[in-house]
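Subject: Heme oxygenase

B.,
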Amino acid sequence: MCAPALVQPLSIRLRECPAQAHEHAEGSDFMTSLLGGDATPEAFTALTAQLYYVYDALEAAMRRHRESVWAGQIYDARLERRDAIATDLAFLLGPGWREEITPLPATRRYVERLEEADEIGVIGHHYVRYLGDVAGGQVIATMMQRLYGVSPEGLSFYDFSALGKIKPFRDDYRAALDGLDLTDAQAAALTDEAELAFALNSDVFADLAGEPAL
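Prediction pasted inline below.
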């Protein structure tokens, strides 16, 4: 059980409360296989394809709210990944990549949630996706090169060099979260949405594990 929302800084609450859902996503069969070297380059490409739909929806949602009181304090165009993923897919699948990919059922549900989420909800998804990407992106890119021979031209998604040093960026991001003027109920709703975001990612991984690779 999490402490009441106002007892802890929001950044701490977001780290601790969804911890079990976070571990479940990271420990999914698909990700365990991919990061353990037991998958294929095609599995990596399949993941990249699903992420295109997720980030297209997430970034459209964040742009809708970027002038708002709370989202405006979190929004940073340097984080946006959709165009980088498109570049990766063009390299991995060729210029006709859009005709070769389709969202899995879990991805469609994820997108629907992002499309219907309010400002508080979008911030929860923003935290889950981007802070995780920034934290582990370079490690994953290195592993994909080493394990599957993926060329750097197919790994633009994981390049956050535009942010500068990662630790100061992450510290500033957490400070911005802690500075949001939320009620207890709003902070709790944001944390709940972050937990849902991890569950939605787990569902996408489960669908990927059950699908033939591209």
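The radius of gyration is 17 Å.

T.
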